[in-house]
Design goal:
Layout (H helix, E strand, L loop, with lengths): L1 E10 L5 E4 L1 H11 L4 E7 L4 E6 L3 H14 L17 H10 L2 E7 L2 E2 L6 E6 L5 E10 L1
Antiparallel strand pairs: 1-8, 2-7, 3-5, 3-8, 4-7, 5-6
């Protein structure tokens, strides 16, 4: 069995951002040479997420509105965690959106359903963060 590991680095321009990382994962898969197996992609920071969904701007806006209703950024004083940092809402948003995805690899391709894409979701951005790509198989 072969194994491949790579870190993808991001520096978002805003506090919250959704980045379609599917092309980067496709490049990782090509580099790995693995044709049959599994691809794990996980966020390496507790205030960011990796998830699968549709790449549609209206849906991304809906994520933002919905998550802000569930865990509003302000007022910062509503959260016991906030003190040194003001990112309690980002921790909660990450919990809802998830830490990682696992995608089957079939015939050298990510084995997606219709419209599925992999996203990196940032909830406390404007600094350098990363996601891990781990591919195993033959």
């Amino acid at each position: 069995m072969k194994s491949y590991r790579k870190e993808l680095w991001f520096e978002t321009k805003s506090r919250r951002e959704y980045i379609n990382i599917t092309p980067a994962i496709d490049r990782c898969l090509a580099e790995s040479g693995i044709k049959e197996g599994l691809c794990l992609v996980n966020a390496m920071h507790i205030t960011s997420s990796v998830f699968i969904n549709d790449d549609e701007s209206g849906l991304h806006h809906d994520f933002e509105v919905w998550l802000e209703k569930l865990a509003p950024e302000k007022p910062y004083s509503q959260y016991r965690h906030n003190g040194f940092e003001d990112n309690a809402d980002a921790h909660l948003k990450r919990t809802v959106m998830g830490r990682e995805v696992v995608v089957a690899i079939t015939n050298g391709k990510l084995d997606f359903g219709p419209w599925e894409q992999i996203f990196y979701g940032e909830f406390d951005g404007k600094r350098r963060k990363r996601a891990l790509v781990k591919i195993i198989g033959e």
